[in-house]
Amino acid sequence: MLAFLCATILSVCLPGAPPAHAQEPPLVLAFYYAWYDQNTWTSGTVADSPAEPYQSADPAVIQRHVALAQSAGIDALVVSWYGPQEANNQTETNLRVLLDSAAAAGTHAAVAFETNGPFFPDRASVTAALRHLLGVHAQHPGYLRYEGRPVVFFWRQQRFSVDVWDSIRSEVDPDRTSLWIAEGVDIAFQRVFDGHYLYSIAWSPDVNRTLADWGGRVRRYAAENNTRRLWVATVMPGYDDTRSGRASAFAVGRRGGDYYRATWAAAIASQPDWVVITSFNEWVEGTMIEPSVSYGDQYLNLTRELAAQYKAAPPPTAPTEAPAPTPMAVAATPTPQFSPPPSPLPTGTPVTEGSTVNLVVSNGPCPVTVPDVTGLDQAAAEAAVVAAGLVVGQVTEQCSDTVPAGSVISQSPVAGASVQPGSAVDLVISSGPCDAVVPDVVGLTQEAAQAALEAANLYIGTISQECSDTVPAGSVISQNPVGGTPVTQGSTVNLVVSTGPCPVSVPEVTGLDQAAAEAAVVAAGLVVGQVTEQCSDTVPAGSVISQNPVAGTSVQPGSAVNLVVSSGPCLVAVPNVVGQAQAAAQAAIEAAGLAVGQVTTQCSDTVPAGQVISQDPAAGAQVSPGSAVNLVVSAGPAVVPNVVGQAQAAAAAAITAAGLTVGAVQEVNSTQVPAGTVIAQSPAAGATLTCGAAVICRHSHDAVTDLIASGASAGLLSRNSCRASPPGAITPRSWWPSHFTEPATAEEAVRHKRSSNSITKPQAKCPGTRGRDGERVGLVLTPRCCSKPLQWSRIRPGNLILPTAQHRPREMMTHACIHLFTTSPLYHVKTRKKSHLFLEKSFRRRNWTGLKL
């Protein structure tokens, strides 16, 4: 009975349970990614792969995913979005397909706005994208709305401050007609946003406590600010990014589905407005529930089961102490029911002897229920403890990544414990977030560095770029703070990212010889490109005329530098000066950068005197600048010089210098003119002749010579000794045609001359002499012996002068040699009739009948 009474008393003293809060209709959402292609599954960055590998851009794939999510009880897929830009941005085009597919299936989709996406370089681009999202995509019938308001999740909104976000929202959604859900560990963003979620909870050693804490923070913020805020609890099947290349990669095992069940239990216990699954298909981080090679449909089926349980009943009241993970929340054990004790009899009541008297005995003050003060600031917590009839015990500080500084992390005894009045309640007060150790991200790619910092609950601050010869482009050169530095969680780390090798300044190599120039290019970390040759009047052969790129240009290491190397001075085309006057020719040569070489004169029958006959090198020849051009200048037709009285050698030189040739040289005896001296010449001095014509000279000799009748073109004949010949014989010399035999008599010669015209075309035997028809015919009438000096006469056209007439013809033929000179044309003496030359002998006793011409 005493025990019964005590039980009754104790039951009266226990406090009642607090009432449950009303809940909004629950939603189950899942993060969705639409940026995969066939390369994803072979890249080595994923631990598993889909049961059916796919490309996200395939509309049939998106339709299949919508159907799978809908069958698992997921109300909407929340797709990552990089903005409305279409070029190189399949998140935009795939969002449109997703909205159409969701609408067709009677379900919905929403956007996870990637604030740090590649197409958002600044605040203005973020603002423009949000305006497009709310004005276009959010109006689609397939877009998720909650209580009529389109829902937008945000990722990494910490990029901008709360004030900046306040300004952005005032521009794009001033009436707060949409629902913005923020992410992360900073409750301050709830000043602008309408709800909060944690993208990942895999980092937490106690997901129950983490989710309960953040659910409580969101509700307290709403209560303190007299507003409403949505708490979206995260569930995950596991985590594994160990193949991503991230320095901070880690894994949380799925444990055959137990981890997924535990996160669902913790999420439901945190009293969420919605539950969001991380994720439907994040393959790189291994959080997918999509059917896979390793797990098949296991996690899709678990989702269907757990989502149904969550939606079937409101979640339980949030626990004051985070419970250990259980597969699912279990129903509370019913409170035992007791029969009411009999009422005690008042004192003085008459009873029958032997009756039973029931007693109510005091066991001291009724126990006090310890209030829940976790999460309250220290002052409020202490006040609550005192108000409950308890005292504040030991107060200690401890860092916390989830409890704000100054608030209670934990208490002892725990809330709900029954203790005696006046008992002490110890409190642990948060000193603020625990220091995080900055990971060393130097050498990682920017993406991997960002993932490592986020895993440590840190954020990327400013990103600057520098070139580096050692760090590949896109990788981190340095960081601030450096790796290993303790910092407050949520702090930013500034990165310097490599743009690749530092540009090289192209060296100056113009003017260097080719070998030195190439060595300088290679020494600068560059390569020699195309080398071409080009003439130059200023750059020595073998030296560099120009380069491309020019000196001082900044180029990437290993770039090619093309060189133009001098082949020496440019060749000059020799001008054509033939036919020009000598002065003009010299001016033209000098104007072409050449020099006038040897200038010689030469007689010419065709080129006027003073004009160029020929040049060497010839016109058009390519020669080096400054080369000499030799000229031959016309002296005009040949003019016979006066060589009478000159020695034979001097006379010959003078004749040759005049452009003539020395013809027959006759030697005659003279007692007055020194031996070897010219006595006479033919043609006479001053006569104009064809260039190369012969001039006949007679010079003194000390012996009797043959008397020669010769034309100007007769060969140069040396002295011939006298020989016996029949009187009147015609002795042919070098002029006589080769086809004739030497006639024995004058009559025979005459016959020959009448039978052929070629007698008037003697062949000159001296080198360089020429003959023309009807010119320069020589005949020699020789007596038996030339024994004495003769008196010379000349035969001119129309005139015949013979030696002195006192001699008889026979005597004349016996004692004299007749030298017949002819000029062209010859005429008959008597009739002046142009005729062939022939000789006819007719003797009368005392006189010549004459030479008939």
Total number of helical segments?
Answer: 15
Give the overall shape. Answer: rod-shaped
Structural class: alpha/beta
Residues in β-strands, percent: 15-25%
| Overall average residue pLDDT | 77
User: Main sheet: which strands, in order across?
Assistant: 1-2-3-5-6-7-8-11
Total beta strand runs = 40
* Multimeric organization: single chain
Distance between the termini: 198 Å
Low-confidence stretches: 1-23, 315-345, 702-853
**Rg, Å, rounded:** 67 Å
Compact overview of the structure:
α6 runs parallel beside α7.
Topology:
Elements (H helix, E strand, L loop, with lengths): L1 H12 L13 E6 L26 H13 L4 E6 L8 H16 L2 E7 L8 H13 L9 E2 L2 E7 L6 H11 L6 E5 L11 E3 L9 H18 L5 E6 L3 E2 L10 E2 L5 H12 L4 E4 L20 H15 L55 E2 L8 H10 L3 E8 L9 E5 L5 E2 L4 E7 L4 E3 L8 H10 L3 E8 L9 E5 L5 E3 L3 E7 L5 E2 L8 H10 L3 E8 L9 E5 L5 E2 L4 E7 L5 E2 L8 H10 L3 E9 L8 E5 L5 E2 L4 E9 L1 E2 L8 H10 L3 E9 L8 E5 L5 E2 L4 E8 L44 H10 L23 E3 L13 E2 L2 E2 L8 H7 L2 E3 L33
Parallel strand pairs: 1-2, 1-11, 2-3, 3-5, 5-6, 6-7, 7-8, 8-11, 13-16, 18-21, 23-26, 28-31, 33-36
Antiparallel strand pairs: 4-5, 9-10, 12-15, 14-16, 17-20, 19-21, 22-25, 24-26, 27-30, 29-31, 32-35, 34-36, 37-40, 38-39
Helix pairs in contact: 2-3, 4-5, 6-7, 7-8
